[in-house]
Structures are given as structure tokens and as C-alpha cells.
Amino acid sequence: MESEFLRFLILEDHPEVAQNNGLFLQQLDPCAIFTIAPTHSEALERLTLDKYDLIIVDLLFGTPTGQQSAQASLELLQQVFQDYPTQNILIYTSEYDYLKPLTQAIGRHQGGFVVVSKLERRKAFLDGAKHALDGKLEIPRELRHHIELNQREMEVLLLLCQESLTDKAIAEPMNLSLKTVQNCVQRLKTKLDVEYLDENHTSTRVALCMEAIRCKIITL
Fold first, then answer.
1. What is the pLDDT of residue 1?
2. CATH classification of 151-214 is 1.20.950, yes or no?
3. How far apart are the first and last CA of the chain?
4. What's the predicted TM-score (pTM) here?
5. Which of 6, 49, 117, 211 could tie 192 with a disulfide, CB 3.0–4.6 Å?
6. Quick one: signal sequence residues (predicted)?
């Protein structure tokens, strides 16, 4: 991180929930600063003024009719994908099906993107924040269909499968850090849905290549 402390932007229309989430996030960094944006327009304005290590987005917001809607949050995410392609994002919702129209954009996004269900324990929220800060991609399996690989992921996949290179050996010719390559491999496992395999029986790296071949993403 460039700054000495973490900076969080929390998009949430319930003040008490937002405040509790901010205090909970300070477990990652007691000196962390969190800013609460109660509206989507204010969140976008904040992003133009400051740099945040992570933004936390509640998908559903109340409407004047008393209903809950995800439309404004989805529009905000599209704007963030366009203007801040490396921004780390944590989605906190129990209704992640609303994200299905954005799966292609999620796949192309370069920053961390993690979806955590509100039905999970609070520890899952904190773990999700950590993983998003690390640049990881963690989304429900229902959102992974037809998700695309970006150019860097394709290059890493080819070196991993066709050349059988280690992460370190991949990093050198691509002029990337080892952590970047490790994150890339993790994202590949998520996108190709092989991260849940039992490595005692099947290597996930082998399964990754087998799935890439099955899906005709690569040929050997």
C-alpha cells in the first residue's frame, strides 16, 4: 500500500450498519480511516477526490416506493470498472444474483473483487476484505459461467500449461512480481471453477489446464 494506513469507502444507506462495518474493518488496521457514503452519487464524488484501498458496496438500496433495488449499485459498479480498473471492491450482499449482468465486466476488472454473503459470519466479511485488498477474485460459483479471461491471465495460463512453469518462472519473462502471478493463477482457478478440488487427489494446476483444454481456451 502506498499510504501508511488503509482507507475504506463504505457505500451503505443504513448509518448504523455502515458505522459498524467501518469499526469492524479497523481490525485489519487500527489506524484505518473509513468514509461513509450514504448515496451512490456521493460515493462517486468521493472516488474523484480521494484514493481508497477498498470500497465496500451494499447492492440493495431503499427506493422512494419503499422497495429494495440494486440498479443504482450496478450502475455505480459499471462506472468504477470503467474509471478505476484497479480499484479493490468488496460486495456485501445476500442477493448476489443481481451481479449476473456484470459477470463479463467483473472478469475484466484488474483489481480485487470479492463477494461476501450477509448470511455468513462476520469473520467471512473480514476475510473477504483481506482477500480483496490482496487483489483476489472470489465470486459465487453461480456467477462464473462464461466469465472471460483477460490478456494477462491468458499469457499466464499458456506458460503454466504449455511450458509447465512454476509461478516464479512465469513471473520472470513477463516482468511481473511473484505475488502478481500468484494472484493471476488464483483468479484463473476461480474463473475456471477448479479451486474447490481436493489437492490430495488432483493438483489444481493440472485440473486448471485440463479444464482450459476442455473449454477450448487453449490447445496442447
1. 41
2. no
3. 39
4. 0.84
5. 211
6. none
